[in-house]
Design goal:
4-stranded antiparallel β-sheet; mainly beta; single chain; 11 strands; 112 residues
Length: 112
């Protein structure tokens, strides 16, 4: 069955960095777009970044441009989200998505 398992979340101070990972299995990882979404407390889930099957990032929400970078490793069936210069407004649960499948999320808290 399809599994998406996120990891790498935690508590970081403003200006800090984290790298999220999403390990995928159960489908042809290299053939599909991969997505990172986030949901902040009391807010709707929003698309943060998207990467196509060729490994090109083709979408970032405006608020993260220049700070977050999505990438993928087809040999490891893993998609990453490198998060730099984090801000308190980046605090959210971050979810990996592919096709109709979702991971359980990893919590990122940016706080001093």
């Amino acid at each position: 069955q399809v599994q998406l398992v996120e990891s790498g979340g935690g508590v970081v101070q403003p200006g800090g960095s984290l790298r999220l990972s999403c390990a995928a299995s159960g489908f042809t990882f290299g053939s599909h777009r991969m997505y990172w979404y986030r949901q902040a407390p009391g807010k709707d889930r929003e698309l943060v970044a998207r990467i196509n099957s060729a490994g090109d990032a083709d979408y970032y929400i405006d608020s993260v441009k220049g700070r977050l970078t999505i990438s993928r490793d087809k040999n490891k069936n893993t998609v990453y989200l490198q998060m730099n210069n984090l801000k308190p407004e980046d605090t959210a649960v971050y979810y990996c998505n592919a096709l109709i499948y979702w991971g359980k999320g990893t919590l990122v808290t940016v706080s001093s």
